Amino acid sequence: MSGTKKPHAGSRRHVAFFSEFLKHPLQIGSLIPSSHFLERRILEAAGIASARTVVELGSGTGGTTRAILQAMEPVSKLLSIEINPNFHSIIRDIQDERLIAHLGSACELKEILSVYGLDAPETVISGIPFSTMPRNIGCQVVEAISSTLAPEGCFVAYQLSDRVATLCRPYLEMEQMELDLINVPPMRVYRWRKNGFHRDQMAKTHPEKAGVFPADKPGPDKTR
Fold first, then answer.
1. If we measure between CA atoms, which residue out of 171, 176, 144 comes closest to residue 158?
2. Which of 29, 69, 122, 204 could cross-link with 51 by S-S, CB 3.0 to 4.6 Å?
3. Rounded CA gap, 88 and 82, in Å?
């Protein structure tokens, strides 16, 4: 019997993430997976606990995917769409009946939801790098999200740059943003709510909230 220890699953995912970043830097956008602190911030912004259908765009090695599953209700469904075959194979190995792992493009969100017979999602979470994709592709993704999101549904995007905000303005109303300085690198967490207040209306009624969503509440750490 060999005394060699097998690599920890988390270590294998980090190696896979780094390897795929070197191959496809524009497709992945960040050298390091999301931190647990960022995952908690994303979950709070997205209101996962009240959603019955959740969509994740760009699942990577599955850290955020697992955090979403931990926060979801037993009756909810998570559709995780990943364009990278190696990342998709990692997500497909997650043992959870609520998870649907799909290999494909976020541009085809409407068709993918139909294939699996899923209702309009109350929450869409995106980690795909809008800053590095062609503008026309980014617009297609945002249009697909806005057209499929349920009324009062929530779209959350965690990004290195502010480009996603510009792309979303023709399709969704006021964005809210909070900067996570703990994550490496620092990450912007944006949130939109379909049919929500317009920016000017929010500024008049709640000027202290315009453009910012509530800070994190203390909570247990999430593991990948």
1. 176
2. 122
3. 6
